[in-house]
Each structure stands twice: as C-alpha cells, then as structure tokens.
C-alpha cells in the first residue's frame, strides 16, 4: 500500500475468526457460491447472496474482514453490511446472532442453504473535506454508483465461513451491459451481462479487485507480461489511452530492472479518479495485489501531475510482486482477516519496495541523479520527524495499536532508507558486483509464493546470504533502537549530506497550509489568524482574502492543482499580479514574488574517488 500523503497534503487540508468449529462434510471441497447483483442497486446498496457449502455443525460463523493484507489498519468492513439473513432449503429464516461488527453466528447451521445481505459503499462515508482517520483507505474501499461505477474490492462484498476459507469460490456478477469489469481474473461466462469468476480459495478472491464502469481500458505486453490499464474518470477528462504511453515506459523499465525475479503473467492497474465532492473518495494512493493495483487520485490533477503520481504509486505497488507477495512470513501466508498477527518485517515489505520504486527510476534513466538524491534527503527529513529510536521490528509487529500505529508512515521513509543502507553495504562488500536486488532474488528462490519464513529467522537467513555487516546493521538499526548514521553510508558512495537554505513551498509549511477552500463557493481563501510567510506579507495579502486569479488565470477548487503546480515554477522576484476579494471588494495587487526559505539537508556527490562504487549502486 502507498498512501499519497506529501504530494497531496495541501489539497487534503484544503478540502480541509475463532468461534464455533466446523468442518466440510467431505474430502472434496465444495464451492462457496456467491451472487452479486449490480442491476438492482437501491440507495447505493448491492444485494449479495451466498450459497453455503454443506455444514456439519449446529452453529457456523460468517465473517467479513476486519483488515486485509497491505492496509496495516483495522477497518472493520462489516460495518458496511446490512440486513444479513440466513435461510434453509424451504426458505425459512434461521436465527442469526451478530457477534461483533464483522461476525454473524448462524444457528441450526446444518440446514443452512444461503445467506443474503446488503453492502453499502465506503466512499460515501468519507464525509467532510478530507480523509479521516476512521475512514477506509479509498483504494481498499468500495464505490457503488449505479450505472456508472462499482469499485468492487472483493473483501468489502464477500466474506467467509469459519474453517471454509480454503474452499473454492465461484462468483457470479450480474451487471448492466454498458458496464465492463476490469480485473486480472478470467471471466468464464461469455455473456455481456454476467461475469463468472472462480478462485481456489478465499484469499485468492480477496487479492482480485474488479472495477465496473463504461469500458475505458488499454493493454500492452512487456517481456511476456500482459498489462491492462483501466480508468474511471467521471467527467471523461482522463482516458486510459492518454496515460498509457507513460505507464508503458515505466512498467517496461520496471520489468527490465527486475529481470528474472518476476514471473507474473498478467497485471491490471485500476484507476479511479475522484470528484473530491462530499461523498466521494479522499484517501489518495494505491493498494497492491499479486496481479493488480487499485489506485485512487483526484480527477482535478493536471495530467503531468497525475502521470507523475501514477508513476510513483504504481511503481511502488508493482514492486510488491517481489515482497511480500513472493517473500513473506507465516503471518502473511496464513493471514487471519479478523484476528491479524502482524509480521516484524515492514521494513522489507514496504521499505525495500519503496526503495526499489525510486532506485529503478535512476537505474533505468527515468530521473536524474539530482532527483534521486532529493528524494533521499526528503525521506531523511521526514524520517527524522518520526520516533527515530523506536525499534522498527517492534513497531511493525504492533502496527495495529498505539503508540506504534502512528509511526506506520515511517515505513516509506526510514524503511526505504534501511533498504538503501543494506544496498550500499552489499555493493561495498562485493566490490559493486551485487546489491539488494540480488538479495531479494536469493530470498525469492529460497522461499517463493508458497513457502513462508519464520519471522524470527529472517535476519539470520539474510546474513547467511550476504555478509556479517548486513546482519550487524539489521540487529543494530532495524531491531535495535539506535538511529541510523546516514552520513556514514553516503560517504561510502562519495556523497555528502549538508544543510542549505532552499526555497520552500509558497502555500505550505511542513504539513500546515496557508490556504483553504470554501466548499460551498469553491473559493480559495487565505487562512486567518496564522502567521503568514514572506510571500504573503510582501504582497500585503491577509487572512480571509479570497484568491480569485493569479497572473490572469482564474482559480477555484476546480483547478486548484493548476495553481499549486504553477507556484512551484515561481522564481525569486518574478513579477506577479493577484486578483483578490477583501471584505467583499475586488482589488488587484501587483508586486514581485518573495519566496520563503527553509534550512534543508541536501545530498550531493562530492568525492569522485568513489565514483565506481556510486555508479554500481545507481546503475548496476
């Protein structure tokens, strides 16, 4: 999973299973048959029918997940289930007891034939102007907009009976002919109004999202992998065809970077673009699956910003095919959706994945060295703002509870830097011949999709496959509480980390914005009663001023990303004209741009004697 936190900080702020035991009745596992009706949607609710397998106990529990792999949060998807009923073969109702938010116990279960219930969508619950801490992360959630779009993350709609998770699932989805389901699963029904999918077990179903909408998709093949791009853009502003060239370039580079480590045959990218209205998605980012990624971004983003964000988040999710999908612990292999036990190794699952998402871009020539160094220094700055003495393995194993859950975001910062340091150690010890990608290849060969490792044995295995220095690093800086001395590792590849005054964001200080929007009028307003930076004070802009236009371009909520993008191009003393409304009166302000500045760590190559190792690190 990758949440878009920093790229969208301004916009977000502006828009301001262990119960009764049961076993199957025969050694041949029956299908759990599921019917999903997308034709008769009422009040944004979808009817689900579950035809139960034969049950040999008097009581059985049906579960909807509390959490799913990749989210690292307890989201309680059962809260979106309504009116669950159980029936025998004569159509008589059986007694159902709700055990908790996500679990229902069915009595007289031997006579159970089917369940029915309604599913509400999570996007509608993302009320207000920004993503809330109790909201379901949008790429892991659901949207139900009859006749337009159904974001069908299967765990939001379909659950499992206790001890029947390993049974095959057969899912039949009835839908309007005008809606097409984008997924990596194979539809075995040729009808254009019914899709049928079969999975070997519940976990496989959960890992296969489907997005129904008016057909807008492209496909291409890279080194034997079929890649599908599907887009839902409410206004039609963005099409799959419009972003495919950049996606093909990126994913071709990723495949070349991974080499033989990747054997996935089909991969789907499902992009949902949000209107950002009161009842639409606001949790921007992506969620990985073995053969798919769900992505949610704002539709108002300019195309170049959208493509850049897609490259960052999709590249991260795509690299999850390495870990945790091919290299993972027993906690992931045997994931308990309602009583999850978390692995100690988020530094690898998310951190190394994020490191690869940046490293491959410099390795394959998609970004410059300066861009790469800036990303590393930004990660250090953000990591330093977190608890730098908290054991990363302890945080990971306890990530669902306080105080550890608040540190989760650090997996994308310090976790990535952990991967970088290990990479540099391996490069140094192997005289540039090997790196962390070689380690991941060896781990993939050692374990693979079907063979999990024991959490407490991974460090020893990594040390065995690499060098004692890697093991010492893991014990000291990952399991231990000692902050990482980044400068030591940068020096090995000829880089220096030093502090410089650099231009800061005009409209943002840290995570705190200087502007907001009025959701009723869509006007952009300077936040009152806060200390404004030099940009605002030099132009005599004040709190409660409405920013109507800048340099002749009119701005509102609808195109605020254009304004934010343009502001990043401003230089010191550039002429600027701003049209504002103050106390109901319009006025024009002419002046020059005075940028705010901040002290920031900057990473630069300074020791040319280390160029050979540096080049092996970046290009090897």
The largest sheet, given as strand count, sense and whether it forms a barrel, is: 7 strands, mixed
Structural class by helix and strand composition:
alpha+beta
- Low-pLDDT segments: 5-27
Mean pLDDT, nearest integer? 92
Give me the number of helical elements.
Answer: 16
- Beta-strand percentage range: 25-35%
Query: What radius of gyration results from the CA coordinates?
Result: 26 Å
Can you put this structure into words, describing what you see?
The chain has 620 residues and is an alpha+beta fold. It is 27% helix and 27% strand. The chain has 16 helices and 31 strands. The strands form seven sheets. It has a seven-stranded mixed β-sheet. Strands 1-20-21-19-18-17 form a six-stranded mixed β-sheet, with helices on one face. The model is unreliable at 5-27 (pLDDT under 50).
């Amino acid at each position: 999973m990758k949440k878009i936190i920093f790229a969208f900080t301004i916009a977000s702020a502006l828009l301001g299973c262990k119960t009764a035991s049961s076993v199957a009745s025969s050694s041949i596992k029956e299908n759990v048959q599921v019917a999903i009706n997308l034709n008769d949607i009422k009040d944004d609710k979808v009817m689900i029918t579950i035809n139960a397998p034969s049950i040999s106990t008097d009581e059985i529990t049906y579960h909807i997940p509390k959490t799913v792999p990749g989210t690292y949060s307890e989201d309680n998807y059962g809260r979106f289930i309504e009116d669950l009923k159980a029936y025998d073969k004569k159509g008589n109702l059986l007694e159902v007891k709700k055990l908790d938010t996500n679990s229902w116990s069915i009595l007289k279960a031997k006579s159970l034939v089917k369940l029915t219930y309604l599913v509400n969508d999570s996007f509608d619950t993302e009320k207000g102007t920004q993503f809330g801490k109790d909201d379901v992360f949008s790429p892991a959630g659901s949207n139900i907009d009859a006749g337009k779009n159904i974001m069908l993350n299967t765990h939001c709609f379909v659950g499992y009976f206790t001890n029947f998770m390993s049974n095959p699932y057969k899912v039949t989805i009835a839908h309007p002919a005008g809606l097409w389901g984008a997924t990596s699963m194979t539809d075995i029904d040729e009808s254009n109004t019914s899709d049928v999918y079969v999975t070997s077990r519940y976990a496989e179903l959960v890992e296969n999202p489907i997005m129904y909408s008016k057909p807008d998709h492209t496909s291409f093949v890279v080194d034997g992998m079929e890649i599908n791009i599907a887009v839902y853009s409410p206004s039609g502003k963005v099409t799959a065809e419009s972003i495919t060239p950049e996606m093909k370039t990126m994913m071709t580079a990723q495949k070349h970077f991974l080499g033989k480590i990747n054997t996935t045959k089909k991969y789907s990218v499902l992009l949902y673009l949000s209107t950002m209205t009161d009842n639409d998605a606001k949790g921007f980012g992506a969620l990985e699956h073995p053969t798919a990624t769900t992505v949610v971004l704002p539709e108002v983003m300019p195309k170049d910003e959208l493509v850049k964000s897609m490259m960052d988040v999709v590249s991260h999710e795509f690299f999850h095919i390495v870990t945790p999908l091919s290299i993972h612990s027993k906690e992931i292999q045997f994931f308990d959706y309602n009583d999850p036990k978390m692995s100690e190794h988020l530094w690898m699952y998310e951190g190394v994945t994020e490191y690869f998402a940046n490293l491959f871009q410099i390795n394959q020539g998609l970004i410059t060295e300066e861009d790469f160094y800036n990303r590393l220094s930004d990660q250090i700055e953000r990591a330093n703002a977190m608890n730098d003495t908290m054991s990363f393995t302890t945080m990971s194993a306890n990530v669902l509870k306080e105080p550890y859950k608040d540190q989760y975001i650090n997996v994308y910062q310090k976790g990535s830097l952990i991967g970088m340091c290990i990479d540099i150690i391996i490069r140094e010890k192997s005289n540039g011949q090997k790196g962390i990608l070689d380690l991941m290849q060896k781990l993939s060969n050692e374990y693979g999709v079907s063979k999990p490792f024991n959490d407490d044995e991974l460090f020893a295995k990594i040390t065995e496959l690499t060098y004692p220095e890697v093991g010492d690093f893991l014990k000291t800086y990952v399991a231990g509480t000692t902050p990482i001395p980044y400068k030591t590792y940068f020096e090995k590849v000829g880089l220096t980390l030093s502090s410089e005054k650099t231009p800061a964001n005009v409209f943002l200080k840290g995570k705190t914005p200087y502007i907001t929007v009025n959701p009723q009028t869509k006007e952009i307003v300077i936040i009152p009663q806060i200390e404004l930076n030099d940009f605002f004070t030099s132009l005599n802009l004040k709190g409660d001023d409405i920013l109507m236009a800048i340099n002749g371009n009119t701005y509102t909520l609808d195109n605020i990303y254009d304004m934010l993008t343009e502001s990043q191009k401003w230089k010191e003393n550039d002429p600027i004209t701003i049209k504002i409304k103050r106390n109901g009166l319009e006025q024009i302000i002419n002046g020059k741009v005075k940028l705010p500045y901040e002290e920031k760590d900057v990473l630069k190559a300074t020791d040319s004697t280390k160029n050979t190792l540096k080049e092996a690190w970046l290009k090897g």
